Structures are given as C-alpha cells and as structure tokens.
What does this fold into?
Amino acid sequence: MELKSKHILGIRDMSAEDIIHILNTTKEMKKIVLSDKKRVPYLQGKTVVTLFYENSTRTRLSFELAAKYMGANAANISASGSSVAKGETLIDTGRTIDVMGTDIIVIRHSMSGAPHLLSKNISASVINAGDGMNEHPTQALLDMFTIYEKRGSLEGMRIAIVGDIYHSRVARSNIWGMTKLGAEVCIAGPRTLMPKEIEKTGAKVFDSIQEAIIDADVVMSLRIQLERQKSGLFPSPREYSKFFGLDEKRVKLAKPDVLIMHPGPVNKGLEISSAVAEGDKSVIDEQVTNGVAVRMALLYLLTGGKEIADIN
Ligand code: CP
It folds into this structure.
C-alpha cells in the first residue's frame, strides 16, 4: 500500500489508515535496528539529505542512521556551515540539493510551513523534521509507535500531555495523531503556555497536572522550550516544577502500568524528576530507539517500498 502523499508534512492531514500502515512498517524495521546486521538494501541507489536550520541530536542522527542502515547515500547540511549563512534562500537551497539527484530532503526549520513551501518548489520528497511551533510528525509517529507496540492499539487510551503546550510542535502532532487513532488526549500546563482554541484539536484541557494525569494510560511530559520564550511565561523554574513537574507522587495518580514518555531533550528536575525519567515506567530510551525504526519506515515507504512480505 502506498502512502497518499509523496511528502510527510504533518499528521493533521494524514489519514488514520496511513498512520497505521507506517506503524506496521515500523514494526518490521525495528527488527533490523535491533539485529546484529544493520544493513539491508532497500534504499540502494537512493539519496537522502538532511537540511537542518535548527539544532537536533535525535531527529537528525536517526534519519542519517535510518538512511545508512538501508544502504542509501546520506548527507547532512546545517544552516551555519552552508551557503544559507551567505544569505541563500530556502527555496534556492532546496533546489540546489534537489538537482543534485536527491530523492528525499528532511528539513527542520524555525518557520512554520517551511517544509510545505519547499515541497511545492522541488521534485524530491520532503519530510518535516519539525517546523516552528507547527508540527513534528516523525516524533509523533515514533511516540504513537511506542504505545502501539506496547499496548497493541491507541483506541480508548487516556493519554496525558503536560507542560509547555504552546511552543510544542510535538504536542500538536501527537494530539492530531492520537485522536485520529481513537485515544482521549488530556492536556495540562500553565495558562500562559496553553494555545488559544486548542480544544478545537479534540484535546481536553485541564488547569492542573493532577486532573490530566488521573487514570492515564500514558503520561507525556514536554520540554520547557526556554529558547522560544521572549519573556518569562512562568515565574521561575522552581515554581513551574512545583505546579507542573512530573514527580513520583503525581505518577501514582495514573494507572499502575502507565507509560512515561518525553520527546527529549529532557530538563531533568524541571519538567520531570530524574527518578521518573529513569524509573521503571519510563519508555524514554525506547522512544529514541523507535525513532530510528519509524524513520526507516518513512524513507522506505516514500521511495516506493513494497509490502515488507515481498522483500523478505
Ligand atoms: N525530540 C527531538 O526532536 O529531539 P532533537 O531536537 O534532539 O532532534
């Protein structure tokens, strides 16, 4: 089954059917990630370029590893070390990469909509690796996969997403995706970090972290994005932690087998305590591993990957 679009720009416009297809393909790719022989020829002859205008560890490295594990040519461009620093526009940079024979460009940009703009001006497929405060679709896919793999389905799950919702493209993509898959998404954070009209996404909004967490199957803590805050949106880190930090006492409000998630990087002791982030309910490390598998699945499907059964 082919995906409906040749680009991965967001979860908002992705069908539940495509999401499930990606998650099932990820299951197969994870076997390769966990194997001793991380080399399959699915992308032989293909070229993947990561174009990052913002910092990244997990997303960029996992795309590079995903491409290499499948035999693709992989290259990376950072804004600071490229002709972007000389003033080259996004479209001109994209076209330059495109005409070198690139099949997929993976882009992270501080401007919401940058991947969409790029996709309209080049022939390669475009994957959004995070655009401003809009979406981070591949993170949401790996988050949904982490739950899907452990629980078999997201249908009927109560999923709490807590923290800096306003700046979080991860929260937006996850709300779109998780509700499409039948989960009830409960969000909580300081009012100053809650976007207007967020209820329209289908999420239930709570003022306190306790109300959002009660009986949750999954609790996702979000990073406080200090780099995107021009003025203080909460009184102090200590105050934030007191009212919205995820600690062991608060985790007890959730179901006993709750999954604790965080997209990373983690500010331990601020939005989540070290004990919770490193505790036995935490699947934060698995999220990182799953990030490679989900990105393999996306690269594979966008380059015309057949049903996995056909290539085994
Ligand atoms: N979760 C995430 O996007 O992490 P990086 O910024 O390290 O890629």
